[in-house]
Amino acid sequence: MQEIVFxxxxxxxxxxxxxxxxxxxxIKKLIDxxxxxxxPETHHTIEENSAEKANYVYSTYKIDCFSEDSGLEIDILNxxxxxxxxxxxxxxxxxxxxxxxxxxxxxxxxxKANFKTVITLVLNGIQHQxxxxxxxxxxxxxxxxxxxxxxxxxxxxxxRTMAELMLDEKSRISHRAIxxxxxxxxxxxxx
Length: 191
Ligand code: IMP
Hints:
6 strands, Maf protein
């Protein structure tokens, strides 16, 4: 089976992506290649941070890899929390992040939002990007027990929150899944 490095140590992301990729690729994590460091994310867009992580791993470890960077973008907040999604509420705590969003969205009628994932693949030194967008709205309270991050306040078109989907279903419909499917199609042809 072909091997590919997923440049993350985030176990939630690995679980989601393994559901889709594991039939075709053996996914190695950063610790499997001896990388225990936090990857640099110094830019102001999801695209640039995604590219920075994959290029860093490729140039440091000389190995083909892909990374992903994602975030929640809320229309009426001009795309916030966006690139700051992980620590919007001041820490990396998902509850404080969601509380701040709920606070800022109080009384707002336009609740449109989307999750976005940008995957960067570096293959033989050449960079390719794949984007996945999932549209929904911001709820008025947290609901659901699964997932992570903003899942309990992200309402899908069918009225369920993302945190009401079990891993298998989320892994198939998420913004990450949409981007991963493009990655798989590309790797099928080029790897
Ligand atoms: P990063 O991509 O690791 O920089 O983190 C992005 C942040 O966006 C995460 O810490 C979460 O807060 C949020 N996020 C990314 N993907 C998801 C998701 O699938 N569900 C809920 N929140 C997410």
